[in-house]
């Protein structure tokens, strides 16, 4: 029995505007929006991009629940940088623009240089033929000079032999595409007739140039992969349209820039052959690089995503989440950890 003068315990009351456990269970969480940027779960490292922002009914806090581990992550605002926020944004934008422009210049230079090298390699067959013709001519001149000296009588005046030191040095080298050709002799030859003997400009190309198919394809794929990652805001199927104008500029350089002049009146046989054949040996290589770059732009992001899965742990993949979100894909789930 409780004395009348003893203090009586009052029933616990809830503050106004608050909800008890039962009310909390009954009140659903309000959905307020979605996570647009990249935000990493502090527990498992899962990227919360695309997850729903809710208001927790008990404390009225904004949070995001990780679909991987179920941990609640508070949505917090980061402190502003004042006037330096816009300055840093402008600096980063200019740096990104410089990277894109530099990649464009590098792409044009790579396609142009690969085309010139392919055209030179394709002219090796004609270059070897030109070196053989020069060797035959010099051997004939040497034979005539020796015959003249043998037929000369004692006391007769004999002119200088047509074979000089330069020609003697040329005779010592093996006839091939890397042999040196005397410019003075080549000007006296009919290059068009030599090409016609081989069946025309395309028939004069070296069949061994087929070996360049794989290296040129790898170059084009690398170009397409780089551009598909540099421009994540561009749909994957349209990235090839970005490579197209760069290939056009490289083709204009290849068509308009003249070949370099010979060095001291001497040129290598492959360079002489390339000037005779013209641009016929380079256009197939240019087209093959462009097609490979278009294919690389289609498969570039999937290849990079696969490489990131294999090389990086899940926690570090979140920094590259834009490569998933730009194609409307969810971030890959961690291989270990609880699933809900």
Short description:
This protein has helices spanning 21-26, 84-122, 124-151, 165-172, 183-187, 191-197, 213-230, 239-256, 269-277, 283-311, 314-317, 322-325; strands spanning 30-34, 52-55, 62-65, 72-74, 180-182, 266-268. With 340 residues, it is of the alpha+beta class.
Explain this structure.
With 340 residues, this protein is an alpha+beta fold. It folds into two domains: 25-74; 102-151 and 163-325, no CATH class. 51% of the residues lie in helices and 6% in strands. It contains twelve helices and six strands. The strands form two sheets. The chain has a four-stranded antiparallel sheet, with no helix packed on it. The protein has a two-stranded antiparallel sheet with strand order 5-6. Strand 2 and strand 3 (62-65) form a beta hairpin. Helix 2 runs antiparallel to helix 7 and helix 2 (84-122) crosses helix 9. The two termini are 54 Å apart. The model is unreliable at 1-26 and 336-340 (pLDDT under 50).
